[in-house]
Specification:
37% helix; 16% strand; elongated; 6-stranded antiparallel β-sheet; 367 residues; 11 strands; alpha+beta; 3-stranded antiparallel β-sheet
Length: 367
Amino acid sequence: MQKLLKRTAQVEKQAARRQRIARSKAASDTRKLQHSQLKVHNQAKRELLVSARLAQREDWHLGPLAPRRDVGDRAETYGTVPLRLMQAVEKVGGKWKKWGIKEGDRVCVVGKKERDKGKIGVVRELTEEAETCKVTGINMISIATPEYMKTSSQPQPPVQTTEAPISLSSVRLVTPLTDPSTGNKRDIIVNEITIEPGRRYIANYIDPLTGRRHYIPWPQKEKPEFQDNEDDTLRIEVEQQTWVPTLLRAPMPSGVIDELRNKYSKFRTRHEDSYIEMKEDIDMKSKQREEELKWGSGTPRVMLTPIQELNRQRRMERMAVEEEDKLTEEVLAGIGETMARKGRRLPLRDAEMDKKDTTGEEVDKER
């Protein structure tokens, strides 16, 4: 017994070790893939920046003899940023939760390399995996309209202006705070936020007026406004009962029921050809055996015992009784009408109700 327990524990350790190695390998592969994607993304940005600087230097040296670059295919899209550079690259082990920034928050750009440093805007879009956000009206760039958008029914301009993503490390949350000396509220930039379940506070700060930590409320989501149109379905039409239950037919087409049932269910009405051939072969063999067991139709291979003959006779009698007890279409239609008229009314008889029935009469069956 000790050997068996020892062997079981050893197998469990080996399985856990294999799972740990597999998880580590999968995480490493994902990390390598994401790093390679980030490298290609940054390299494309660097090539675009280098080419722009070379063109700027050449224009400065040549002066009026500088060549025009906004001609040919790039006559309308010269100076735009490729759309593929707007796609955010997912980072491994995202740290977006520690920033405490959500869509709808007011933030200030504080990055040293950001051209809009010091501007305040509202977060319009947040990419948690890439640790980037788009701020309304900040870091605007021009992009060339893709070809698939030009072929749409609505005409699109060749160049569109939109917000470029900004790293979350380059923005800080802005919140109003009451000045204890003047009593007026003014915006402050929060360098660090303490996040607790469902709440966020200014880190290492105690409000001198209340003596408590300053709570920063989460942004409220705007409720969408729905407008009624002429083609909308009315509520009275949705709530109107248009289906009446019946036992004469199924509540859905037979083809749908066959798809929901098992492939070899005996309740199916349509089967595959191979299944039909197999069942026909079984039926044919059973009929041949019944013919062989009958007296007077050749020499039987097997003789029935008295008990077998009695069981066979009883089985035939039960089958005949079951055929007689089947519900007719009239009875099924009557049951369906009763169900539709009364709805779902479950019987609520119990021991207490039976005790209260002092008249001795039977309780109404419709209850």
